[in-house]
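Subgroup meeting minutes
Present: P.N., E.W., G.H.
Scribe: E.W.

1. P.N. recapped why we're keeping a running log of single-chain structure predictions: easier to compare across weeks, and new members can see raw inputs and outputs side by side.
2. G.H. added today's entry (314 aa).
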Amino acid sequence: MGRALSSRRQRIPTYIYFPFDYTRTPSSLQTTFSYCATLTSPIGVPLVCCIFNSPDCNLRFKCKESVRQADKYEPLFGIEQEYTLFDLDGRPLQWPQNGFPAPQGPYYCGVGADRAFGRDIVEAHYRACLYAGVEICGTNAEVMPSQWEFQIGVCKGLKLGDDLWMARYILNRICEDFGVVASFDPKPLSGPWNGAGAHINFSTNQMRNKNGIEHIYKAVDKLAQTHLAHMKVYDGNGGLDNYRRLVGVCETCVYDKFSFGVANRKASVRIPISSAENGCGYFEDRRPAANCDPYAVVDALLHSIILDSAVNSS
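Output recorded in log:
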């Protein structure tokens, strides 16, 4: 069990996110950071998402330019952020001290003390995000016990990244109060346990309108051609984390083979039944890992589908 948990620590890109009073920030610091997301609480205290001002390593800077170029197509995004809760002893929250819980099956969207581990944390996080102004729209228990998900969106690409990073920060702060650790590791446990992803839902104005399914399939074709380039930016470790997660089982596709299908949870890209039946809508890219940088994911999708240019993997 110890070896299975050895890689659970999440690898998150080196951005800095913290709440503070902008009016009290020294002028020297104001020239160092980019204030990309400001969410004001009902009592007027802002939560500010900060990133170092360096175009060379600032993925938000690059994403912002891609969003600007693609704006006329009105791309919209939603993301499903999965995470796993751990006790301080390194075991998943409320798992038996000796052995494992019952096999996966009854935990997904489950209720009851023997199926839902950590709901108080999940609901506290949801309320805190609403209070802070994060565009959070849902939450649910996941397939693996002690694993949960929250959803951000529907919103434009830059806001998706800003709000997801803020929601991640808030989750870690909530967990701190409960004495629990939130992990974004894409495969926190080896064996027959689901990994953690950050599935992203995407559409353009053409996809959402009549006969939009044709544009959805055109986008899927483009993603097939740039599959490996996307895999390099779809986790926090240049593709190595997804290599552990995307093995063709536990509701995942295969890492080095692109696939798609209607209502297929084992495909790289899933087309919802509603989109297929209505002839328009959106698609779900199931490849991004739980520790992905949302700015990099948004940027890659826009480059491949709309801008028809190479994916930025730097």
